[in-house]
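As a next step, the fold was encoded as tokens, giving this record:
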Amino acid sequence: MAARSSGVAGALCAVTLVAGCASGSDEPTSHPTRDTTVTAEVGERFTLSLPENASTREHWFVVDPQPDASVVRTADRRYESADDGKSVGGGGSLVFTFEATGRGSTRIVLLHCTFPTAETAACGGGASPSPTPPPEPERITYRVTVR
């Protein structure tokens, strides 16, 4: 009986290991910046990559209204240098990774704050001291459907 018991335990460990490896090796689905419609399956991870250069005061943020967490959650945010960080001030991409958590629809709103828009309230600035108000920052809204 002990031999049969250890064989079952070994088989369960192998299944667990294979399942763990399969889910851990899945790369997130990448979506182009301007493709604002995303369809995903529950459990699927997907990325949104946007050009960013912090040295020129350029930043992207997920802003309100936040995505419905029962449909999509933010899983990661990382910066990828265009040239592996070899040049000072070189640009790159900000990569947001999301995970589809449940069926439904939601929106992901990204705000692009740049040097000219830094003084707007949306980007954390106050009222503009100049007579000409700064331009409003760019917003991109992604419509996400999880099946």
Confidence is low (pLDDT under 50) at residues 1-25. The chain has one helix and eight strands. The longest strand covers residues 72-81. The CA atoms of residues 15 and 32 lie 35 Å apart.
